[in-house]
Design goal:
Blueprint lengths: L1 H11 L4 H6 L1 H51 L27 H25 L4 E3 L4 E3 L7 H12 L3 H13 L8 E3 H19 L2 H14 L13 E3 L5 E2 L8 E2 H4 L3 H11 L3 H15 L10 E2 L18 H13 L7 H17 E3 L6 E3 L1 E3 L2 E3 L1 E3 L5 H9 L4 H23 L9 E3 L7 E2 L9 H13 L3 H16 L1 E2 L2 E2 L9 H6 L13 H14 L11 E3 L5 E3 L29 H29 L2 H27 L14 H27 L10 H32 L4 H7 L3 H30 L4 H29 L5 H13 L3 E13 L2 E10 L1 H9 L4 H9 L1 H23 L3 E8 L8
Parallel strand pairs: 20-21
Antiparallel strand pairs: 1-2, 3-4, 4-5, 6-7, 8-9, 10-11, 12-13, 13-14, 15-16, 17-18, 19-20
Helix pairs in contact: 3-21, 4-17, 4-19, 5-6, 5-7, 5-19, 7-8, 7-10, 8-10, 10-11, 12-13, 14-15, 14-16, 15-16, 16-17, 16-19, 20-21, 20-23, 20-25, 21-22, 21-25, 21-26, 22-26, 23-24, 23-25, 25-26, 28-30
Bound molecules: 1-deoxymannojirimycin.
């Protein structure tokens, strides 16, 4: 029995901590094994996590496809509308909070990347020319050499925050743009791209150079309206001013070309105070109104001498489209007042006509807008007509409740059809037009795709007006198809045939040249802008404050006949996604941690070697110290990496706090292993130790380690200084209260390491001088205590960071001071802040707004008649003003303390509800 007990206790002795404490070399080997196993597990885990992320993305995609498939099956194998047509009719144009979804952020960035690619290619190969030919890498002047792409891109660059590119383009406009060209220009194209682009750049930037240029080109276009009826000729020579119509129209003017200058020319009058522009274009509508048909549908040709329609096609596609669009938009631009009522009336009449053109396909019941010649309907729809769902949705709110719902439903049905123009082809890009033959749903007619924007334009409006995110997903799918098929090395090109996959053709060895060689300027002006806005908060170019011309150039809505300047400077409304000035702490911290990691590895190896030779207790303490530091820094690095993960649905504020968790774990590790084991070893050997041998080796290694650890300490101190500067704090304050304890952790550990080496050196010198070995374990105990102090300090630092303390007092005071002094703020209640990551915070306050000042702002610079209108719309005005004030306060608070990422300002209800 006794034998059995003793053999089993021998077997289990390895699990007894006392076994290792008596055998320090084995303890060190155990530590090493622990470190290497941890590393291995960590490495595997990182891999597994990356795979899991990939898998979850694939799973989401699979779920989506399965849903679609389920619905397809349910409806008998044909594509049907996925979304609920009774979507909540919420106007989300003021709900900023809805649009801070991380997926939207990622998508928006991808669209911005596409713009950068398109613009950089244009800058490189076609600078100053109208359009870029990406395959042959050269520029062409398809609009007379007016820099069409450059001007078309100005506002997109501005909205996307591409400031340097915008500035370079602005310099070209100021110094090189010359309109004195002996060139027969299209009045329509020049107006929507050049006048519209310049005015939009002016409204966004306030830079007069754009207004001057807009006036210059508009003055050159004006003689086109000098016709007997006032219906303009569609072509004019920019240098000489002689105007005419294209030969192929039989002398007629084109409806869209004649009725799509109103927004730009009215805006020009509002900004210059010169009436002539507005008069010319408004007269066109009055002239057309005289012969306006009962169904509001005008054929595409108009006689400029008599002002009467000529027998021709009626369409919402090519040559008709934007005439209808501008009827609605001039009404919106004119603040929906009595003065512009006739535009709305004409538009509503045309919408009745549109209803008479609406048909549905069999078997899938796609809704489409047919065309008409005489009394015959033609089952054809252009992709160009896909702007109509957006227009109808935009105009639907002007109807009473019943019609409003009816038109919004129609808009959603048409958008579904347009989306299927894309989805039904192998390339997932739409052709130019579609035919609807009985029993066949849709068939591509003209099969090219030239990067047109109309469908994404409609998706943008529908998302803004319904809040239904399905439209964002559709837009994203279309964007991805452009990326896949149209992106080439030097920009984006169209496809000659969307219904043929190049991969199939390649395998059949047919060289068809599927891609074309043109990057249309509207791809940068419209397609990419609408896609970018589709993934931006609704306050970015709010539909309450801006109206888009037909080339997607936003024009600021100003009071008609009132201000000669847009009120862009009144309150600094936000026109871009909020820019976050991120405090760049990560790079310094990461550098400090990585340096410390390698230095510790080196030092550990040296110390370990020397300890094997000397068997010194203080050297063992130093080995343990380095192992603890190494493990700690590996954990910090892991924490830093994990905390950089992008926010997701489960963690909408991101993972930035994760580094505190790992930092805390490592601090506890130092406390238990580093400090605990070293002290215990020292205490155990206090009375039994022998003088260590080979002290010279120990001295050498201590010296070498001192230099290495010293270098690592210098990097960490530098990181701490940088961190303090980035947060505007003194180094001392940063050490105790800074928002990123990582670099502080490395600095304290390295500091302790350097001090530990001095202690080790001191104790060995003491042993050598006195011959008393007790100084060796005493050194070990001191090093252990030092580690304990460091660990307790780090535990405290990370504990505070994890609990989520408030922002610094002085920052909070600055924000409160700002709010207190703002005229629109009466009182501030319930102010709270929380650190949500290293260097960024959430701030929340309830504000009692000053109603009188709000109202004065809304009514500012309006005369008495205007005042009446203001009064009648005061509810709307005040709500808009309140929303804008909240935006402004949030923006300014973020400027005061840049790390504040989330600002929640709420309106305070001053009436205390009864208990
Ligand atoms: C753009 O130039 C304008 O949107 C215009 O109204 C019609 N077509 C092109 C883009 O497709």
């Amino acid at each position: 029995m006794a034998r059995t007990r003793s053999s089993s206790s021998i077997r289990w002795r390895y699990l007894n901590p006392a076994y290792y404490l008596k055998r320090p070399k084995r303890l060190a080997l155990l530590f090493m094994a622990f470190v290497f196993v941890s590393f291995f597990v960590w490495d595997r885990q990182t891999l597994v996590r990356e795979h899991e992320e990939e898998l979850s993305k694939l799973k989401e995609e699979m779920d989506r496809l399965q849903n679609e498939l389920g619905e397809l099956r349910h409806e008998g194998g044909v594509p049907v509308k996925k979304m609920n047509t009774t979507t909540k009719r919420t106007d989300v144009t003021k709900m900023d909070g809805l649009a801070t979804d991380p997926i939207e952020d990622q998508r928006r960035e991808k669209v911005k990347d596409a713009m950068i690619h398109a613009w950089t290619s244009y800058e490189k190969y076609a600078w100053g020319h109208d359009e870029l030919q990406p395959q042959s890498k050269n520029g062409v002047d398809s609009f007379g050499g007016l820099g069409a792409t450059l001007i078309d891109s100005l506002d997109t660059l501005y909205i996307m925050g591409l400031d340097e590119q915008f500035q370079r383009a602005r310099e070209w406009v100021a110094n090189s743009l010359d309109f004195n060209k002996n060139y027969d220009a299209s009045v329509f194209e020049t107006t929507i791209r050049v006048v519209g682009g310049l005015l939009s750049a002016y409204d966004l930037s306030g830079d007069n150079v754009f207004l001057e240029k807009a006036k210059d080109i508009a003055d050159r276009l004006l003689p086109a309206w000098d016709t007997p009826s006032g219906i303009p000729y569609n072509i004019i020579n920019l240098a000489h001013g002689n105007a005419h119509n294209p030969g192929w129209t039989g002398g007629d003017s084109i409806l869209a070309d004649s009725g799509t200058e109103q927004l730009e020319f009215i805006a020009l009058t509002q900004r210059t105070g010169e009436a002539k522009y507005q008069q010319k274009v408004e007269n066109v509508i009055l002239e057309l109104k005289k012969n306006f048909p009962a169904d509001g549908l005008l054929p595409i040709y108009i006689n400029p001498h008599r002002g009467t329609p000529s027998h021709s096609t009626i369409t919402f596609g090519a040559m008709g489209d934007s005439f209808y669009e501008y009827l609605l938009k001039v009404w919106i631009q004119g603040n929906r007042t009595a003065e512009v009522k006739h535009y709305r009336e004409m538009w509503e009449t045309s919408m009745k006509g549109l209803l008479s053109l609406v048909r549905r396909t069999a078997p899938s019941s796609f809704t489409y807008i047919s065309e008409k010649i005489g009394n015959s309907l033609i089952d054809k729809m252009d992709e160009l007509a896909c702007f109509a769902p957006g227009m109808i949705a935009l105009g639907s709110s002007g109807y009473g409740p019943g019609d409003s719902t009816k038109f919004l439903n129609l808009a959603e049905e048409l958008a579904w059809t347009c989306y299927n123009f894309y989805q039904s082809t192998p390339t997932k890009l739409a052709g130019e037009n579609y035919f609807f033959h009985s029993g066949q749903d849709m068939t591509v007619g003209t099969s090219w795709n030239i990067l047109r924007p109309e469908t994404v334009e409609s998706l943008f409006y529908l998302w803004r007006l319904t809040g239904n995110k399905t439209y964002q997903d559709w837009g994203w799918n279309i964007f991805q198809a452009f990326e896949k098929n149209s992106r080439v090395e030097a920009g984006y090109v169209g496809l000659k045939d969307v219904s043929t996959l190049s991969i199939i053709l390649k395998s059949a060895r047919v060289n068809t040249g599927v891609k074309d060689n043109m990057m249309q300027s509207f791809f940068l002006a419209e397609t990419l802008k609408y896609l970018y806005l589709l993934f931006s908060p609704p306050s970015v170019i709010s539909l309450d404050e801006w109206v888009f011309n037909t080339e997607a150039h936003p024009l600021k809505i100003v009071s008609r006949g009132g201000n000669s300047k847009p009120n862009i400077r009144l309150r600094g409304f936000i026109t871009r996604p909020k820019k976050i000035n991120k405090i760049e702490v990560d790079d310094h911290s990461q550098r400090a941690v990585t340096t410390a990691l390698w230095c510790n590895f080196l030092v550990f190896s040296l110390k370990f070697g020397v300890w094997l030779f000397t068997s010194s207790h203080v050297m063992l303490a130093e080995v343990v110290h380095s192992v603890a530091d190494f493990a700690n820094q590996a954990l910090l690095l892991y924490g830093l990496r994990s905390s950089k993960r992008a926010p997701d649905a489960l963690h909408p504020y991101g993972y930035s706090k994760e580094r505190f968790v790992w930092s805390l774990i490592s601090a506890v590790g130092i406390f238990c292993l580093g400090s605990g084991a070293t002290i215990v070893n020292g205490v155990q050997n206090l009375w039994t130790s022998q003088p260590p041998g080979n002290i010279m080796y120990a001295a050498l290694v201590i010296g070498g380690s001192f230099i290495i650890e010293g270098a690592s300490l210098a990097v960490a101190v530098h990181a701490v200084r940088k961190g303090a500067a980035a947060e505007g704090m003194k180094v001392r304050d940063y050490v105790w209260r800074g928002h990123d304890p990582t670099s502080v952790a490395v600095m304290t550990e390295d500091g302790a390491a350097v001090t530990g080496l001095l202690i080790a050196a001191g104790s060995l010198v003491a042993v050598n001088l006195t011959g008393n070995p007790i100084y060796d374990p005493i050194g070990s105990i001191i090093v252990g205590n030092l580690l304990g102090v460091v660990a307790i300090f780090l535990i405290q630092r990370n504990r505070h960071a994890l609990i989520g303390r408030a922002i610094d007092d002085h920052d909070m005071k600055r924000v409160l001071e700002f709010l207190k002094n703002d005229p629109v703020v009466d009182s501030v209640y319930d102010c709270k802040s929380e650190v949500i990551g290293p260097g960024f915070f959430r701030f929340k306050a309830e504000i009692d707004f000053n109603g009188a000042i709000l109202f004065q702002d809304a009514a500012k610079e309006k005369d008495e008649t205007e005042m009446l209108k203001v009064m009648s719309f005061y509810g709307e005005e005040v709500v808009t003003a309140l929303g804008s004030e909240v935006d402004r306060l949030e923006k300014e608070i973020q400027e005061i303390v840049p790390g504040i990422r989330h600002v929640d300002i709420e309106a305070h209800n001053p009436i205390i509800p009864p208990p």
